[in-house]
Amino acid sequence: MLVFTEKNLVFLSMPKTASTAFIAALTHYASMIIKSPPGLKHMGLRRFNNRIRPLIEKNQSAPFETLAVIRHPIDWLGSWYRYRQRDAIKNKSNSTQNISFDSFVQEYMGQTPPDFAKVGDQAKFLHSSKESAPITYLFQYEDQSGLKQFLEQRLEIKFNLQKRNVSPKKNLILHPETEEKLLRKCQRQFDIWQNAGPHRL
Prior knowledge:
Blueprint: E1 2-4, E2 9-11, H1 19-26, E3 32-33, H2 38-41, H3 45-56, E4 65-70, H4 73-83, H5 101-108, H6 122-125, E5 137-140, H7 144-155, H8 176-185, H9 187-195, E6 197-200
Parallel strand pairs: 2-4, 4-5
Antiparallel strand pairs: 1-2, 1-3, 5-6
């Protein structure tokens, strides 16, 4: 999470959307940075509104605006799957080694996903209560240039973006039946991604 007090903007870090790369590039310009633990770094909108917003807005003349990034759900799950293929967690309960991508997605959609398929929900990350402010700006992960341009204009800076935490490349096979089920089960995620863009919501 990055807080830009002077620019009245908070960048919420959705996992697997290049948030680490943006944190590295923008740390020098932020007035508050939360890099760890993961639960705080990747704090969702509702938790931010309830816990952090009241603290940092005490001396602000206007409410903070929020920004986040959402990734195509299948690509997002693919990134999680590849990330958990790494040897560093081999033989651990959250490893996806020796598990097909199709099986990973099937388990993700289950009522009680095993550890390796517990990766959260992008729609829930972006959800706020009726009494709280919704996300202000939402970009598709696939529009990196648009997001970078927005940040450069808003923060009045120029910065270079370097890839960080890149998951190993791997061909991912998702059976049509599984994809159809995912579209139904996670329709909210697909809808939010489809409607995200460089516009104010």
